[in-house]
Amino acid sequence: MSLFITFEGVEGSGKTTQIQRLKRYLTRKGFLCKVTREPGGTPISEKIRKILLDPDHRDLIPLSELFLYEAARAQHIHEVITPLLKRGVVVLCDRFSDATLAYQGYGRKLDQNLIRKLNRLASRGIKPDLTFLLDCPSDLGLKRALQRNQISKNEKEGRFEKEKIQFHHRVRKGYLTIAKKEPKRVKLIDTRVGEERVFERIRRTVDELLTRSHQSHSRLVL
Known about the structure:
Layout: E1 3-8, H1 15-28, E2 33-37, H2 43-53, H3 62-86, E3 90-94, H4 97-107, H5 112-123, E4 130-135, H6 138-152, H7 165-181, E5 186-190, H8 195-221
Parallel strand pairs: 1-3, 1-4, 2-3, 4-5
Helix pairs in contact: 1-8, 2-3, 3-5, 4-5, 4-7
């Protein structure tokens, strides 16, 4: 059974932790499961990621940033996501096209219709079956992200953490708007309730999706 599940949220929202927990849970249930990320996921896309997240690249203009994200996504879709879904793998992706709309559309204030067109083109029309939006106040998430970067010494991926707080407020607002417009796909979870309760919500939602998918498949077989 192939499923495409994405995780979204501002910096420091805890996506990586929850993705790994869900992967372990699904693997124990017998599903083939692959974790990937954007930007990244392929050798070429990972090189683009280094350009996008390097804090030394202060002169990268918003439009160039947008095109780089879409280029990385097109490669990711071609090399990783489409082949895995065809093989019946459950794909868990750390950010996808919603992030581009939130960061480059709401955050950078680029034309949102243009972004939606480019998203459809780069993703070949593929949309997640389910998206978890892990929400927290922008200042709290940013504080967590900065602490994480200090601990991991990952200074070459801190370009967005250096943005002003107003930028992060716009990104969060964008995410919340996306969730409001697509409540069936995008499940909003307040991460301030703690890691365990966040995962319990994720687990229940995924179990419900798996049950519906199994029932639909059974009806088709009959």
